[in-house]
Amino acid sequence: MLDVANLEAYYGETIILNNINLCVPKGQIVCLLGRNGVGKTTFLKSIMGLVKTPQGSIKFNGKEITTKPTYFRARQGISYVPQGRDIFPQLTVHENLLLGLEACGGDGSIDETIYELFPVLKTMLKRKGGDLSGGQQQQLAIARALVSKPKLLILDEPTEGIQPSVIQEIGRVIKQLNHEANLTILIVEQYLEFVVDVSDYYYVMEKGLIVTKGFTKEINQEEIQKRMAI
Prior knowledge:
Structural class: alpha/beta
CATH architecture: 3-Layer(aba) Sandwich
Shape: globular
Number of domains: 1
């Protein structure tokens, strides 16, 4: 579904991503692991058209999107939940969810299945986003991304700053979306246990390079942990 080949990205004259090759097959959950500052978030921003990528190719469902604007990518079916969630604190939960419809041109309505996935949100529709806990805000951010019924869901550090019970809940939702709705998901993450629990395939990035990859069921957790700790 998503095919990235020989991708490079720069900030000014500094190269951040160097010859990245990564594939997210339809119906799978793929995780990109790595320490802080190695280029993971820049990679996701490249997919969304938020960072200039002078070299390489990004294809979505077989179509080249490397030079397409961000809104085009969103309307093709890519939803992105950034690190830090970026909800609107002064808007209500319901208003934040309605903004998710902008990805499909503002058309449609909020599917009730959103509240089945995240029951806590239905009890808080009139509360302002800024009044929610970190875990509730993360659930809101994911729900907002799902409102447009994407083909590919991208999550940047979904477990960051979240208590263990909510991490388990988010993991449950991710697996449910994948198994029941066949949603394709790309996750950037540092929490190895979470990656092992939810993903089918993994990549590890160091200093803007993919240094190892494989099927999650075959992962050597000790080796990956050493790479994450360096």
